[in-house]
Design brief:
The protein is an alpha/beta fold. It is 38% helix and 21% strand. It catalyses: 3-dehydro-L-erythronate + ATP = 3-dehydro-4-O-phospho-L-erythronate + ADP + H(+); 3-dehydro-D-erythronate + ATP = 3-dehydro-4-O-phospho-D-erythronate + ADP + H(+).
Length: 410
Amino acid sequence: MIFGCIADDFTGGSDIASFFVKGGLRTVLFNGVPSDQTIPEVDVCVIALKTRTQDTQEAVKVSLDAIKWLKEQGAQQFYVKYCSTFDSTPEGNIGPISDAVMEELDAPYTILCPALPVNGRTVKNGCLYVHGVPLHESSMKDHPLTPMWDYDLARIMEPQSKFTSMKLPKGLTKEEAEEFIVKVQQENASSPFYIIPDFEKEEDAEQIVQLFGNLILLTGGSGLAEPLAKMYQQNVETDEFGRSNSKVILLSGSCSETTRKQIEAYSQSGGESYFIDPMKLLSGEESVEKIWNVIKNTDESILVYSSDTPENVKLIQEQGKEEVAELLEKTTAELAALAAEAGYHRIIVAGGETSGAVTKRLGFTSYHIGESIAPGVPIMIPTQDTSIRLVLKSGNFGDTDFFLQALSRT
């Protein structure tokens, strides 16, 4: 095993796994740390956790458990994968997890590299942008679970991490960059630290990999996975499982602006859809059984969603933020399970937390990674049931016609 990777949620895991595959490495994705499962012969093992919104102490513990397991499996390098739009709250988990893993691996330093230019996430002068808009001015500022209140990565990390974060000056040659790192090492003595490289366009990845590709630990989004994989010149066949003719269910819990536009495009195309009203679920007026009766009476495909505007989400959360989120995730997961039992072998899900709930309920623990519907969104085939095609996307990923693309490509 070359790379052992932990991801902060399931769609984050499938995201980075897809880029390792695109770069030519055999990759398997696990939902949580495997226990007694046979590990296939692979180049990359990605373990999807649920640490993005987990209690910090527990998030650090499960992250270290996963890293230790990957060490036991012989991983040579490690990758802490987090959301490409970071988490700019002082209570965020990125700093504590990265600190703990750096200490566990005895890494002198690592990088903070959340950029994914192909999806509009870029870093300039150490600051994070979404399609050219400063992170804290983008639609992500209203994220219901991890709101984005700043865009300066060093400033964001200051309250989260016990270690220093340094921006790598722009425009340095390889030799100058190496001299800069040596100087920072001397200044920090024995204390670990973070380097923040700029990553504005896809070509920048090659220089970053040249400088940092051999570190025992890397942290960031999935923007470096493909060029890292290409260092090893392997070859992967991604379409060996083919397509499925089964019925399809689409499920969305993401409230991102991108997903809401995708839902609108799907509906405008003539696709059937059904809105899960959280207030009706809370009151008991709505139930899994009632929604399932609607689903099973559709002919081909149906999109079932709880996605809503930030304003409406805030109003609903007044009823209890955690209670509402848990109820919606549980409802969506039960619908996915009913669909799978009824022969719906194509299951398409939008939203990181929703995807995690769905995969946990379905009970599959590992996946082959197939071709991608959009950058960072692969078709996944459970190793325990290769008849199923599962597509899980982070809320902000994919073009406006994503759901239509997913239907045709699966």
